[in-house]
Automatic annotation (TrEMBL), chain B:
GO cellular component: ATP-binding cassette (ABC) transporter complex
Superkingdom: Archaea
UniProtKB keywords: Cell membrane, Cobalamin biosynthesis, Cobalt, Cobalt transport, Ion transport, Membrane, Transmembrane, Transmembrane helix, Transport
Cited PANTHER family: COBALT TRANSPORT PROTEIN CBIM, PTHR43627
Oligomer and partners: Forms an energy-coupling factor (ECF) transporter complex composed of an ATP-binding protein (A component, CbiO), a transmembrane protein (T component, CbiQ) and 2 possible substrate-capture proteins (S components, CbiM and CbiN) of unknown stoichimetry.
GO annotation, biological process: cobalamin biosynthetic process
Pathway per the UniProt entry: Cofactor biosynthesis; adenosylcobalamin biosynthesis
Record keyword Transmembrane present: yes
Location in the cell: Cell inner membrane; Cell membrane
UniProt GO MF annotations: cobalt ion transmembrane transporter activity
Membrane association type: Multi-pass membrane protein
Name this polypeptide is given: Putative cobalt transport protein CbiM
Native source organism of the sequence: Methanococcus maripaludis
Family: Belongs to the CbiM family.
């Protein structure tokens, strides 16, 4: 791995950890770490209080746990494909060199 | 960044469906042509789609104290352009709308337009403009960052158009604050991750990138072919 790549990975880690450290001890009840999508929905209800969402999702994950399951599944599908691509090509690459 | 189900008035939902539909259909035609002409690039298509799957499932904390997730559209945009990326984004958005109630079916057109079309189009443009002027890794990083920012600015504009209260400018500023500010650090993160994965493809399969016309064929030697 090149030095550049180490710096890039460090950058990702720092950017992820910084908010958790900055707002350490604060949680959803204080209005932190909620989703931006929901915040936009709240803003719509605030500036246009009479607006009624005219369509409901057909199905919602019955709980936060199930939602995490499906999000994890989504990431796993992606990671499998990427891992396969890189694993397959890395083996071929090592074979040739 | 997703507009929630039911939160766009029917007229706007229809407009964005129409605009996105045209691009997605064009993208499907392009995609079929690409697969027919260069079947060997198929794995990179899967890779770009998979990258979007992962990144859009990572809800990350941002320095503004709210959470959002990257879109992953930058990689596809750089490799295949915005139209094909729109097709990939449609798959991801359908998954999220149907299984996660994240985004929505009525707002699908608008969400495809911001995440699958405008963001990637801006990333694609940045890539074209900077290519050859900087080290290609950083060009890709910047393209992904701008693709991500472009997405959030577009979503803010879409919401401000639908809810110009009290006027368009104020609404745009308000929605922009909710989305774009949260997204500034997340976009940088997405850019770095996109750059990392790009470099790894460059190391292992530069021939595939050369096939797509992204790098000089001369530089494509030494991969795993």
């Amino acid at each position: 791995m090149e030095f550049k790549h180490v710096l890039m990975i460090l950058g990702v880690i720092i950017l992820t950890l910084a908010p958790l450290i900055m707002y350490s001890g604060l949680g959803e009840d204080e209005g932190y770490f909620g989703g931006a999508d929901g915040a936009a929905g709240d803003l719509i209800m605030e500036i246009s209080p009479n607006y009624e969402p005219w369509f409901e999702p057909f199905w919602e994950p019955p709980s936060g746990e199930i939602e995490s399951l499906l999000f994890a599944l989504q990431a796993a599908i992606g990671a499998l494909i990427i891992g396969y691509f890189f694993g397959y090509n890395k083996a071929k690459y090592d074979d040739q060199n | 960044m997703h507009i929630m189900e039911g939160f766009l008035p029917p007229m706007w939902a229809a407009i964005w469906f129409l605009l996105s539909g045209i691009v997605v259909i064009y993208g499907i035609i392009q995609l079929n042509k690409l697969i027919k002409d260069k079947p060997e690039v198929k794995p990179t298509l899967a890779l770009a789609g998979a990258f979007m799957f992962i990144l859009s499932s990572l809800k990350l904390p941002s320095v503004t104290g709210s959470c959002s997730h990257p879109t992953g559209g930058g990689l596809g945009a750089v490799m295949f352009g915005p139209a094909i990326t729109a097709v990939l984004a449609t798959i991801v958005l359908l998954f999220q709308a149907i299984l996660l109630a994240h985004g929505g079916l009525t707002t699908l057109g608008a969400n495809i337009f911001s995440m699958g079309i405008m963001g990637p189009a801006i990333g694609f443009l940045v890539f074209k403009l900077l290519k050859g002027k900087l080290n290609i890794t950083w060009v890709v990083v910047l393209a992904a960052i701008f693709a991500d920012w472009g997405t959030y600015v577009t979503t803010s504009i879409q919401l401000a158009l639908a809810y110009p209260l009290p006027d368009f400018g104020t609404a745009l500023a308000n929605f922009g604050t909710v989305f774009a500010v949260t997204q500034i650090p997340l976009a940088i993160m997405e850019g770095l991750l996109t750059g990392l994965i790009w470099d790894y493809i460059m190391k292992l399969r530069p021939d595939l990138l050369a096939k797509l016309g992204l790098i000089e064929p001369a530089k494509a030697e030494g991969g795993a072919e």
